[in-house]
């Protein structure tokens, strides 16, 4: 038993020893664990201290690096500022040097220019003195030539005036005995010779009219080739046509259109003195057969005549008193020395138009009952080779043309330095060529023309022709209507003119 118990106690003792050992070991382990924990804590504290130190070190390094970079930037900026200042100073020095060089060059150039100008002025002064001397000599020569031309022109004007006075006196003397009311034999030698002469003259003027049409086409072709002409010609034509259409019975208001027409013609002469055209085909004057004139001047004078006649057959046919301002401006243009050639007027352009529209003014007659006769009397057609206009339209045209012809031919040039391009004896010849027609040749056209020629023109008729003019009016009003065809209305109207003159002008024929 003892033996059984002993092991038990030994085991119990060993167990306790082992427990004690384990307890010791546990305590030791706890101690070591505690030491480890403390060591870990101290290590952690150390690590944190090291990390903090490292962080502070890094911060210090970062701050130092930032400070270094800042200082570097400051230094760089300072160097850049110094560089810019140095460059600016250098630029300024270069600019100053260039400005100085430029001023020096400019001064040298100015000095050279002054020297050149002085030399040029000296040369110009010498040339001017030479030119002045030449001009002086030219003026002396021109003045001498001008005085010679003026003397020639004066002699020519005096001769023309004397010729006109002689023709006027001859016309007056021709009617000191009233024209015979006896029937004139158209087959007699004087009648036949004068008729043939008038026919030749009429045909020559109709040829001029055809030449003017050809000239108009030539100018249109020239205009297409010359841009400057195309630019101005239309305006010049319109200015003339418009100004003629603006004329009224008010003389003050007519000054504007009158000046506009003259300015248009002068502008044409100034702008287009060339090309020139031979005047042989545009005048019957022997003095101009070898002369030339600017083609645009001839063209525009033709336009002036055309515009005037258009007004005669239009406005004047309704208001005959409008004829006078138109006659004034047209004749004044054809009379101007600026538009004459070799001192001679180009009025044949106007007369050619009148020959075309009213041949009876020039001794041409015909039957109103035939186409050929109507053409010879100036009876207008609706279109070329077309039907004739109505009778009333024809008589209205003749009324306007009669008043217009009187306005053109009864102009007083006694105070004018230039001769009258259509002297009053042309009026006398027109009137007598109609009133002296044989009875079988007188038509309504002739009667209306005579009435239109005399209406509103009695005073001028007396001024130019004196007592002879009164005798002619008496014959035209009392005797000429007796030659009219039976039942003529125009004859009654013409005969009634005596009563109108008594009532309105206190004129007793």
Task: Walk me through the structure.
It is built from 14 helices and two strands, in the order ααααββαααααααααα. It has 509 residues and is mostly helical. It has a two-stranded antiparallel sheet. The longest helix has 173 residues, at 2-174. The protein starts with a helix and ends with a helix.
Strand content: under 5%
Give average pLDDT, whole number.
84
Shape estimate: elongated
| Number of H- or I-type helical stretches | 14
CA radius of gyration is: 59 Å
Give the biggest beta sheet.
Answer: 2 strands, antiparallel
Strand order of the largest sheet: 1-2
- Beta strand count: 2
What is the helical fraction, as a range of percent? over 70%
Termini Cα gap: 213 Å
Extract low-pLDDT stretches.
1-5, 170-189
SSE ordering: HHHHEEHHHHHHHHHH
> Which class best fits the helix and strand makeup?
mainly alpha
Summarize the structure.
With 509 residues, this protein is mainly alpha-helical.
């Amino acid at each position: 038993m003892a033996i059984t118990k002993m092991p038990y106690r030994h085991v119990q003792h060993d167990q306790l020893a082992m427990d004690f050992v384990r307890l010791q070991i546990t305590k030791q382990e706890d101690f070591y664990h505690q030491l480890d924990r403390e060591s870990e804590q101290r290590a952690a504290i150390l690590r944190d201290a090291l990390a903090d130190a490292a962080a502070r070190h890094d911060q210090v390094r970062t701050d130092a690096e930032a400070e270094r970079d800042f200082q570097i930037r400051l230094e760089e900026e300072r160097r850049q500022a110094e560089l810019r200042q140095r460059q600016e100073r250098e630029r300024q020095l270069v600019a100053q040097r260039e400005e100085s060089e430029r001023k020096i060059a400019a001064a040298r150039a100015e000095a050279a220019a002054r020297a050149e100008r002085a030399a040029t002025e000296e040369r110009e002064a010498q040339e001017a003195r030479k030119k002045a001397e030449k001009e002086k000599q030219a003026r002396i020569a021109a003045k001498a030539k001008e005085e010679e031309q003026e003397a020639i022109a004066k002699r020519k004007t005096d001769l023309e005036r004397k010729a006109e006075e002689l023709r006027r006196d001859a016309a007056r003397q021709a009617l000191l005995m009233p024209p015979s009311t006896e029937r004139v034999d158209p087959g007699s030698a004087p009648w036949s010779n004068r008729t043939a002469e008038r026919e030749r003259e009429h045909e020559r003027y109709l040829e001029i009219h055809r030449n003017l049409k050809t000239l108009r086409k030539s100018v249109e072709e020239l205009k297409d080739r010359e841009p400057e002409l195309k630019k101005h010609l239309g305006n010049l034509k319109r200015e003339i046509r418009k100004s003629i259409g603006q004329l009224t019975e008010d003389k003050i208001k007519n000054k504007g259109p009158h000046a506009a027409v003259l300015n248009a013609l002068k502008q044409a002469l100034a702008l287009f003195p060339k090309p020139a055209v031979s005047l042989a085909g545009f005048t019957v004057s022997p003095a101009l057969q070898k002369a030339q004139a600017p083609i645009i001047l001839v063209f525009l004078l033709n336009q002036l005549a055309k515009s005037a006649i258009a007004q005669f057959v239009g406005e004047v046919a309704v208001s005959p008193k409008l004829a006078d301002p138109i006659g004034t401006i047209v004749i004044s243009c054809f009379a101007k020395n600026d538009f004459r050639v070799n001192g001679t007027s180009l009025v044949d352009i106007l007369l050619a138009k009148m020959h075309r529209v009213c041949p009876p003014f020039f001794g041409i007659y015909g039957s109103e009952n035939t186409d050929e006769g109507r053409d010879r009397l100036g009876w207008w057609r609706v279109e070329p080779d077309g039907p004739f206009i109505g009778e009333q339209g024809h008589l209205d045209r003749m009324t306007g043309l009669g008043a217009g012809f009187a306005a053109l031919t009864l102009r007083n040039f006694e105070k004018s330095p230039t001769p009258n391009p259509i002297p009053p004896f042309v009026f006398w010849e027109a009137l007598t060529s109609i009133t002296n027609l044989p009875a079988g040749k007188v038509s309504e056209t002739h009667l209306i023309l005579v009435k239109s020629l005399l209406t509103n023109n009695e005073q001028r008729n007396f001024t130019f022709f004196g007592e002879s003019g009164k005798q002619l009016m008496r014959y035209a009003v009392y005797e000429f209507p007796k030659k009219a065809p039976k039942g003529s209305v125009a004859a009654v109207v013409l005969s009634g003119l005596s009563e109108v003159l008594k009532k309105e002008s206190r004129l007793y024929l």
